[in-house]
Design goal:
Elements (H helix, E strand, L loop, with lengths): L4 H14 L3 H18 L8 H18 L7
């Protein structure tokens, strides 16, 4: 997988700390928890469904943070 779960968790945590909107903060905290949970699991043999879910989460995170994401 191309993403870095630990790095994404940090990005979400920092953005949550900076967020003034409570809904945005809650979304970022939830996304950060997802990335932490993913980081703790062996993803070397990721299923196709999980890979699709991760790509969707990456896209959602990009939309919340206002950054473009690329799909490979």
């Amino acid at each position: 997988m191309r993403q870095d779960p630990w790095g994404n968790a940090v990005v979400c945590a920092l953005a949550a700390l900076a967020a003034s909107d409570p809904l945005r903060r809650a979304l970022l905290i939830g996304l950060g928890e997802f990335w932490l949970e993913l980081a703790l699991h062996d993803t070397s043999q990721t299923s196709a469904k999980l890979a699709i879910d991760i790509a969707m989460i990456e896209k959602l995170q990009g939309e919340i943070l206002g950054v473009r994401t690329t799909t490979h």
